[in-house]
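Hi everyone,

Forwarding the result from last night's run.
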Amino acid sequence: MGSTLYRASESFYLIPDDVDLDLGPLEIRSLDGGMAQVDPLSVARFRVTESVARAFAKRAATNVADRLESSVAAASSALASMTSDVEGLPDQALADLTAQLQQLVGTFQTADLTTDAGRASVEEQLSNLRQAKGEMDDSADG
């Protein structure tokens, strides 16, 4: 069973996913933006240091980056095996999409997801990826 990292102001909590917490006035947020109102006493036993929180976030980001990197490598290999003379194949758009995927992998490997700035960096890369995908779709259609 896994755990989820939450933050409340300057405190971090690593809460097992199978634990039900009592409702209360403390607002905690997970790295993916989830929010809960919990009783401070019910989460006190799950409080961790900032260094433990950063290490957990780094491991989680590395796991995601590794899976994403494998997917990007497989997609790049498949694209490379296609010939550029296939009618309608948007070569530049595919190259741009692949580059955005690789940048996203790099961001996951380096961003500190326990900070607003780190999460904003990932969101920016995801936005760029969506834009590159849209351009590839437009190129394929037209």
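The chain has a mean pLDDT of 79.

Cheers,
N.
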